[in-house]
Amino acid sequence: MGKVIIAIHGLGNKPAANIMQEWWWKSISEGLQNHTKNIYHKPTFKVVYWADVLYDQPKDEKCTDPENPLYLDEPYEPEIFPQIIKDHAVRQKIMDAIVFEVNKIFLNDDYSLNFSSLNDLIMKKYFKDLNAYYSNGLNNSQQPIRETLRNRLKSVLVEHINDDILLIAHSMGSIIAFDVLSLFSDEVQIDTLITMGSPLGFPSVISKIANELKLKNRKTHKLEAPSSIKNNWFNFSDLEDRVAFNYKLDDDISESLNGIKVFDFVVNNNYTTRGKYNPHKAYGYLRTPEVAKKIYEFLSMEPLPLYLKVWYYVRTIFIK
Predict the structure, then answer these.
(1) pTM for this prediction
(2) Could you tell me the pLDDT band of residue 319, with boundaries at 50, 70 and 90?
(3) Alpha-carbon distance 279 to 239, whole Å?
(4) How far apart are CA 68 and CA 45, in angstroms?
């Protein structure tokens, strides 16, 4: 049994799978180096890649034409600006009030949805990937998109069933993760879940999840943290991230039967490239001190191989 980090990306087309995995790990490494102690060796790390299910070609990091649909406008870049603590107290109060009213307007007590046509229109226009996921559409291989995406994550989790898994889910990836962990709790199990920039708090998403769980003979419409999470669920949101507008998931998701609840953290995602600031970007979330700390805490529990223990002991004695 070992420590394994599995990640699943979010909305939109992406660079090729191998490049994306490299950039995610660079972001994680950057956060660990800047905000924690060094880790001794790289753990097993895998990104569950699903952009190719919805897009014919990946974004091309070598493309220089901004008008080309394959132009990659937000590549990984090392942190340019240092972490700055922003005072969002007023913004936070306003957002809390708005979210409360929005949920009252759109969600009924049984988690059925009011104004469903309006919600579907918004999702179709602004969240095309999510709309494809919920519309039961087919991919180019004539396979259901939702089933395909879930199976990709599920198969990797099952592959590492005997390992301690940290699952990091960004954006729409957090919805796929929640679905897999909830619907297949008898087949998959993880140690810790990290969600970043999650839209799980959207009324339409809550309603759709609750409806599907009802079809699975759950006794209540109230969303619960998946019982397949053994130890922790940490949710991270930047208050300027519009995808994570409902940034407090513990208001919408109750404690699981095995006592796991969501712990919400407000962070400052300072991802900036070519003068463009994007507080939703995964690379920025991964290198925040709060996310880095939780990744480090997970990894630091791993026992070192004997040869590494000997090497580090010798190094402390003879190398100044």
Answers:
(1) 0.88
(2) very low
(3) 8
(4) 31
pLDDT at 75 over 90: yes
Sheet holding 44-48, edge to edge: 44-48, 3-8, 164-170, 190-196, 229-237, 262-266
Location of structure tokens 């990797």: 156
By C-alpha distance, which of 305, 298, 243 is closest to 31? 298
Q: How much of the chain, in percent, has pLDDT values that exceed 70?
A: 84
Q: Determine the Cα–Cα distance for residues 242 and 146; give it in Å rounded to an integer.
A: 24
CA distance 236 to 225: 16
The identity of residue 17, as a single letter, is A
Q: Which residues contact 41 (CB under 8 A, 6 or more apart)?
A: 304, 308
Q: Of all residues in the chain, what percent are helix, strand and coil, respectively (each to 5)? A: 40, 15, 40
Place of tokens 């300072």: 270
Work out the mean pLDDT of the chain and round it to a whole number.
86
pLDDT at 280 over 50: yes
Give CA–CA dist 157/48, Å, rounded.
10
The answer to whether the CB of 120 falls within 8 A of the CB of 34 is no
User: Under a CB-based contact definition with an 8 Å cutoff, are residues 23 and 15 in contact?
Assistant: yes
The secondary structure of residue 249, as a DSSP letter, is: G
288: which DSSP letter? Answer: S
Gap between the terminal Cα atoms of the chain: 34
DSSP 244: G
Angstrom distance (rounded) from CA 213 to CA 220: 8
| Tokens representing residue 163 in the block | 């390992």
CA distance 307 to 241: 44
Comparing 97 with 276, the larger pLDDT belongs to: 276
Helix (H) or strand (E) holding 272: strand 272-273
Residue 12 clears pLDDT 60, i.e. is over it: yes
How would you class 148 by CB atoms within 10 Å of its CB: exposed for 0-12, middle for 13-18, buried for 19 or more?
middle
